[in-house]
Amino acid sequence: MLVVQNISKMYGNLKAVDNLSFEVKDGEIFGLLGENGAGKTTTFRIIMGLIDANSGTVLLDGQKIGYNLSDKIGFVTEERSLLTKLTVKEQIEFYGTLKSLEKEEIEKRLDYWLERFEITSYKNRKIKELSKGNQQKIQFISAIINEPKLLILDEPFTGLDPINVKLMKDAIYDLKKKGCSIIFSSHQMEYIEDFCEKLVILVKGKSILEGSLKDIKEAYAKKNILIRGEGIDLDKIKKIKGVLSVQKVKGDYEVKIASIDVASKVFDSIKNNNITKYDVAEPTLNEIFIEKVGGIHE
User: Which of 217, 240, 258 is where one domain is finished?
Assistant: First the structure.
């Protein structure tokens, strides 16, 4: 289990991380969210032991993270960090050796992942000859070749088409099943909703929202009602107290309401029409993120 306790980091007068705490259990996928400059990268670097926090501690299985635990950590960076003049085999051998693996074991694991990602023919190809998507697969393999106890994924699906996203998602779920603690960061909120049981949203290095995704959605007052039908009086709906907006979305009318109590009033206003759909839906994480983060700027 990863435990981050009250870490803070200053760069001159800038507080990049501000008293941040969270836990990631074994076999759990945790979301770390925030706009660019929110403090995510600094947090990752502290967790991996690349930089020291000014205060606070980071523990992996009860031990302070340092060189003694670096072999148990994997990291997929947002920007590729591959040595493009090397072949795929040379690249993975290099990273595997840094993680204290023997070459025979590295090659065995590499062959497994190349087959799983359907790129066995690229083993002896140079990295620079591969497409961006296949380079991303190699970057992922380099991060997990050591079968990490802790895996940090920063925009791991960059450059991947839907089929290859599915391949990598399945790989991430398998690592989760094996007990790997995973921190997942992405600006694509649908991936966070797919993967993460718990999350933290950072603004200027400070947590402004944290907890389980389920609890966060339940606590968020606003709801969306999706309506489809004939003869609907939109002006009548808009006049209902607690209705925030009404707009057309993919063939439905989306009615945003301030609280669940308003849903019955909206239904009463349309129940005599020919209604084929009436669905009260939870807000998306993207909506919550925009509301929580959007208003916190100097």
Answer: 217
